[in-house]
Here is the input.
Amino acid sequence: MELLEILLSASFWAAAIRIASPLIFATMGELICERAGVLNLGIEGIMVAGAFAGWIAVWAGLPLWGGVAVALLTGMAFGLVHSILSVPFGLSQHVVGVGITLLATSLTFYTYRVVLPEVSSPPKIEAFQAFEIPILSQIPIVGPAFFAQTPLTYAAFVVVIVTALVLYRTPLGLAVRAAGENPSAVAAQGLSVTAIRMGAVIVGSGLMAVGGAFLTMSAFDSFFFDMVNGRGWICIALVVFGAWKPGKALLGAILFAAFDAFQIRLQQTPVGAVVPYQVFLMMPYFLSILALVAMSRRAEVPAALMVPFNKGER
Amino acid sequence: MRLEPIANPTLARRTLPPVLALAMTFAVAALLAMIAGGNPAAVFGEILKGAFGSKFAVLETLNRATPLIFTGLAVAVAFRAKLWNIGAEAQLYAGAVVTAVLGTGALGWPSPVLLPVIAVAAMLAGAFVLFVPAVLKTRFGVDEVVTTLLFNFIFLLFVSYLLEGPLKDPMGMGWPKSARLIPEARLPRIVEGLRLHWGFALALISAVAIWIVDARTTLGFEMRAVGQNAEAARFAGIPVTRVILKTALLSGGLAALAGYSEVAGLKGSLTLDLSPGYGYTGIVVAMLALLHPLGVVVAALFVAAIFVGADSMSRAVGVPTYLADIMLATALLLMVLAILLTKFRVRRD
Here is the structure.
């Protein structure tokens, strides 16, 4: 059976983890924002900006991890703008988010044209290479899938663990979660809801940008205009699918990526010869919508998501 | 800091923040133009010249404003009822597809019958495309922002399939484009000899019609009531779900007219690059218009002028046209802030 053969091949799962990596970074970023009570629709544009910033920094001579840092800082800068408008001023998170996406995308394209005015095809960089973890990478199927990836993929998994630990095992995480559930209680404790929410949006936006940078610095070695292609919006669906929990969101991202890797391989089979390729490309978006509908009944939405907080008001 | 409502805002309080927002937008653009090696005065001069400097330029601006008035109205109508329709792009293409299907010879009727029939069919298609996310919102509580955004990608792929399959022009030399519309299905020019079609007039009429709906009808009142406070509206006996669904049909239909007008008026056939993001730009237009239907016309003309002007500025001065997109995004963010500051005072704790 051909389909079974695909599902049992190591290269398939290696591809799935690779496809999942940028989604994991950005989904964790969005999850942190939303747990603190802020929907960040700037995600799509911030991923574009991060993809460009990391790549251009390496092209300009920085080491690869320097590029990741530049992407992170770029995302945090856009996060700062988003958080100023959405938190202390309490402006519509929908409008601010869409505005940040438009701003980040257009600033990125503008900078690209200014820095590289004459090129017809973008230059390539020396991207992250796969690093095989000794012994573990020798395990059949699991080894090549999980332990022969680039360092940035390992970093994505570390980010999930750190996010979960901070959210559930530290006072800071408790404060972040409370800011998204019951901000008045946080204020009553003498903590600043504004500071917590702004911090969450800034950190979350930084992670989104690193997710974008994965595309230019690990998955590929160059920057294209339609590179992010809706991945940011998919991550928003993944946060809902993961019921705002890091572990479940990680699982969702991997499942989603496995499905994506599967449809790419399905295109090469006799099925792909009959069905138009656009149908395969639509599937990830359809799957996201289906996931949203399926999870809507039992989704544990942070109670104060999208609700601005004004001290002294109740 | 904390925000304190102002009981009776002075004239200065109501006008100064928006004016400052626009001034800051231009300041940001000037700075970016200088970084790109352009002289700001020359850049703005060229933008102005490119948008209004000749009869051709003005017509180009009006043509570019036409789809933006439709998508701007679509967004304004939806946002007023707090239905976050970010999917005007998909609804636009739905209208365009229907126009291409019905206008290329499927219906061989005379113009006075054919044009309105296609327009209505296009509106129904666009309405349906937004109706699905609206039902998902009202029935299952699925956030419509994400679903409408995802539908944009799905629909564009669907159009791509149509243009490479069933709708592909056999005479198109292999290009993914539809056949040309029959002459009866084309929107005529308003004045013979001037490159401006009836789509522009239809856009103005739509704006006035929406303004009347908004200000004079029960539906308009209900939509605003739902937008201001859905709970209170429900308590007052307004059928909130039905109002949201009606709003979705109206908004989707308006966005579809943008696709109809582009295919039947300007282009004459359907291509995958029919819209350079008019659906998304409609959000900026609607916000700059403060969601007012007549304001949408003014905002669409402003936005179209910046886009058309930036195109010719880029050819003349060499500063990338993306400057226009940056200006609009900056204007959007600063304007929502400015509007807040017309009503609230910032106090330090």
